[in-house]
Amino acid sequence: MEELLRKYDRPGPRYTSYPTVPAWTDSFGPDDYAEKLREAAALGREAPLSLYVHIPFCREMCTYCGCNVVVSTSREKHEEYVEVLRRELDLLADHLGSRNRLSQIHYGGGTPTSLSEDLLVRLWEKIRERFEITPDAEVAVEIDPVVTRREQLALLRGMGFNRLSLGVQDFTPEVQRAVNRIQTVEETESMVEYARHLGFRGINFDLIYGLPHQRVETFEKTIDEVLRIAPDRLAIFSYAHVPDARPNQRRIDPATLPLGPEKYAIFDMARRKLLSAGYVAIGMDHFARHDDELAVAQRERRLFRNFQGYTVRPAPDTVAVGASSISDVRGAYAQNARPLPPYYEAIRSGRFAIVKGIRLTADDLIRRDAITELMCNFVIDLKSLGQRHGVDAADYLSDSLEKLREMERDGLVRITRDLVELTELGKNFVRPAAMAFDAWLDRLPPTRKGKLPVFSRTI
Ligand code: SF4
């Protein structure tokens, strides 16, 4: 195993999108996005939509954070942001016409519950005014148990939120101090109990492996506590140390980071414990209780993944509001400005705030489909993939299948005329396998600073 880790632990994308963000350019702007929305509108009201709302505020910056965050607890700033979000929702709804049914809503951040109750209500009122929410919609919010008040949780549940994701990371005090995020087991547990009492389902914990000072023995204690609280779902993300791209990570001493086999051993321990406790591995780094709808969907090979994570309710398009948020509409990605001033200025003058994006070609679409299948279900059904895109997928993707031969020889992949399937061992190497289908990797343009794009390591 150590040899395989050494061989395949290379920098590579996480594939929350394909083509990945470094391939996007500023030649895709607000007018292109508006055109894509008009195309989306033409599908009519029966085609549901997914809506992502980005709320960037946090009261402090965690040193490991890789999200787009604004550190502020100012009521004025929060109020201004919500007013602009409301205008952006109007602009969006005007373009979408009767295509206004939402089957998935996700509030992410940042910390969405950094907003006070009245601001959460103002935001929600606008969504309700301009969109219709389907009766079985998945309405999710990410929360930080330390800053979230019970009143906020009750309010969100009353509005119709039914899924909850809690940031946990690691319960070990030494690790928490190193990442500037102190959160006790008791705080987390009491928030989960209350959420269950309110009727939230699909409760998810986000954990991270590879954090400073983390060791197998200490993380094992975290996993034991997590198993006792028994969330429905878990994500165990690999910490990506990219201090050039994320200056807040410079406060982490690289000498304290577990790397290579040591880092993998932490994940492997967690994975084994979760599987033996009855959780099912979902895609790359997610787990779900055997009876959770994600686990059921994976067994039936109908699991899907978008920017918000794994879902069983794939909407054909995702529209997003808020600074830095990313839409995925009619075969194009579009990202809003990250800093607040240009984002505010665009929306206030009645324009979208898109600063970069990409229109996917037919080749991008088939490769994205293949990568999604692999990341979700660990298997690509080449026949149905080909049918969906009007090609013979085995022929069309022969270059990628060739690249996988080495992984096949190493016992990580099985390839037949109809299927590409990861073996049990190979499921640990899903990102390197997905890279075989990525036609952009060798031709990504340099960043604005003239550097080649930086990816985290894949294991
Ligand atoms: S709470 Fe979450 S989003 Fe905010 S700084 Fe910490 S990790 Fe980043």
- Runs in which pLDDT lies below 50 for 5 or more consecutive residues are none
Global shape:
globular
Structural domain tally: 2
Instruction: Please count the helical segments.
Output: 17
From the helix content, strand content and strand pairing, which structural class follows? alpha/beta
Tell me the CATH topology of the largest domain.
Answer: pyruvate-formate lyase- activating enzyme
CATH architecture call of the largest domain: Alpha-Beta Horseshoe
Ligand catalogue: iron/sulfur cluster
Radius of gyration: 21 Å
Strand order of the largest sheet: 9-10-8-7-6-5-4-1-13
Share in helix? 25-40%
Query: Quick one: biggest sheet?
Result: 9 strands, mixed
The CATH superfamily label of the largest domain reads: tm_1862 like domain
Distance between the ends: 12 Å
CATH hierarchy class name of the largest domain: Alpha Beta
Give the percentage of residues in beta strands: 15-25%
Number of strands: 19
Mean pLDDT: 92
